[in-house]
Amino acid sequence: MAQSNFDSSLVSIQTKNELFRFSQTPVRGYFQQYDFGFSGASFSSMNNGEIKTPQTPQKQQEYQFFSQGRRTWNEWYLSGAFSYTKQIQDSIGWKQVREISSNPYYFGNIQPGNWNNDLFDAQVAITRPIWSQRLLVSIGADYQLENLVRTNDPRPTIDYYNLELTGQLSFEILPEIYLYGLISRASSSEKGGIKNYNASNDSYGQLEYNLYTLMGLGSYNLQQKRSYNQDRTATTVGGGVIGGIGAFRFSNEIQVSNSTENFIRKNSDGDEWIGEYFLQTIRNDLFIHYSSPEYLIQLLSGIQLDQGDDFNYLFQGLNYDYQHSLITADLIFSRNSSKKWQWGAGVDYTTLSKEDYNASHFVSYETVKGRLYSQVALKLKAGWQISPQMGLGFQKSLDQELIIGANQENDYTRMVLYPEYYLQLISRAEVDARVDLNKKFSKFQLNPYFGFNQSLAVGELPAFWESKSKDLFSGFQIGINFVH
User: Fold this and answer.
1) Spatial contact of 277 and 308, defined as CB atoms under 8 Å apart
2) Are 273 and 261 in contact (CB under 8 A)?
3) How far apart are CA 360 and CA 305, in angstroms?
4) What is the three-class DSSP state of 127?
5) What whole-number distance in Å separates Cα of residue 54 and Cα of residue 420?
């Protein structure tokens, strides 16, 4: 493969895209074409404003350590990554599980609580060219291990693991252009046990501490079983074309995934199957990189379609329907003559709908988000380089609908669904700023950085919100990276 321009500091937007977004498959290490190591540590803090949903934290802090890179050895291409994240969250209600996703089945309660989470993630991929590099054989593994603890009543302790194994074959159809196919299998297990340290909170009279078994968009059950298992299996098949010709490097990848999750409620009386959730995801990702003596251009785009439904064992049939689509596109441009400025523009278009037939609840959203961003690299004294980056974004709701059946409004409707719906109606402006410093030493490069994020409501707020604060979100990140 012909090498394109490479900023070994790993600071520039285009270099990060080229190394980490060129492909999301195990063969990516072969096409990165550079041996590198990239490690670091960071701290981030975020605050949601007074306008938020109960299932998101008021404040969140994260400490992270990570390492990733690629090495070659006797025509073996090895790439991998490891990260550990300590996550501290407060004021989360209606959530007694690992995460809120499209899956309708989970435990929740009214009383907000604080969480202390430990998250591990390890990835490895190996590629071996054979048959004079006309065939690339790749395997990959991704392992996640998590422990989550809520520190006030009701107090769950949750253990989670996920293992995904992937096999991939890539065949050279033209010089340096490969057609590939892949298959992966993922298996995960989440187990949670919930208790109150204050025995009086076990009473049904303590309404804020009662456990809700949530089953959709308004359907729930109040039988107080305090342990659960949630197991998931997923199979993914995919294919694509990847490679380069002349000044172009490109990849076009498509994957189709089908997953099944079950939710089992447990106590001393035995197991009770509540429901199964089936999700199909179709995803297409396109990456084009063009480099000439005068300028460099990157185009990144993606399309994702999700369709989910369930089988509810308590209702003996289908109860929940989930539809989601996302289209993204980004264009990045820089002139090689100065090698200082990079400009980018992007747009996201999202649709989402959820329906609960038993509760007669339906909600849908349609939003668009645009963004502009730029980065400049400037030389300082003593070999240091500074790279400030600024991004501006704007999100607007294009269409929305909320239908609640007659006499079907309940606690979930008032406390969860209404805040989620009226938050989506708010137009917002976003500012993202980051400053990177970089200095090369004899055996490594040092990259300290600082970033800041702010999201503000634009225009009149929906009457649902009593607060008139326009501050929706703010946060900052500080860290240091090592290139070695």
Assistant:
1) yes
2) no
3) 24
4) strand
5) 9
| CA-CA-CA-CA dihedral for 376, 79, 83, 373, to nearest 10 | 20
**Position 121: which residue type?**
D
434 contacts 400 by C-beta, under 8 angstroms: no
List of E strands, 131-247: 135-150, 155-174, 177-195, 212-215, 220-221, 227-245
Burial of 317 (0-12, 13-18, 19+ CB in 10 A): exposed
Q: Is the pTM of this model over 0.85?
A: yes
DSSP secondary structure letter of residue 462: P
Whole-Å CA distances, 7 to 81, 304, 445, 469: 20, 31, 12, 42
What distance separates the 2 farthest-apart alpha carbons in the chain?
73
The gap between the terminal CA atoms of the chain, to the nearest Å, is 23
Strand partners, 241: 179, 252
Separation between Cα atoms, residue 298 and residue 133, nearest integer Å: 27
Buried b (16+ CB within 10 A) or exposed e, 405-416: eeeebeebbebb
Are 347 and 370 contacting, i.e. CB atoms less than 8 angstroms apart?
Answer: yes
Radius of gyration of the chain (CA): 24
Task: Give alpha helix (H) positions in 304-456.
Answer: 411-412, 418-424
Q: 259 near 276, Cβ under 8 Å?
A: no
CB contact set of 263 (below 8 Å; sequence gap of 6+): 103, 105, 106, 228, 229, 230, 273, 274, 275, 276, 277
Q: What is the chain's pLDDT, residue by residue, as a tens digit (484 residues)?
A: 434 344 556 778 888 888 888 999 999 999 987 788 999 999 999 999 999 999 999 999 999 999 999 999 999 999 999 999 999 999 999 999 999 999 999 999 999 999 999 999 999 999 999 999 999 999 999 999 999 999 999 999 999 999 999 999 999 999 999 999 999 999 999 999 999 999 999 888 889 999 999 999 999 999 888 899 999 999 999 999 999 998 999 999 999 999 999 999 988 778 999 999 999 999 999 999 998 888 899 999 999 999 999 999 999 999 999 999 999 999 999 986 555 789 999 999 999 999 999 999 999 999 999 999 999 989 899 999 999 999 999 999 999 999 999 999 999 999 999 999 999 999 999 999 999 999 999 888 999 999 999 999 999 999 999 988 999 999 999 999 999 8
Measuring CA to CA, how many Å separate 108 from each of 97, 332, 360? Answer: 8, 43, 20
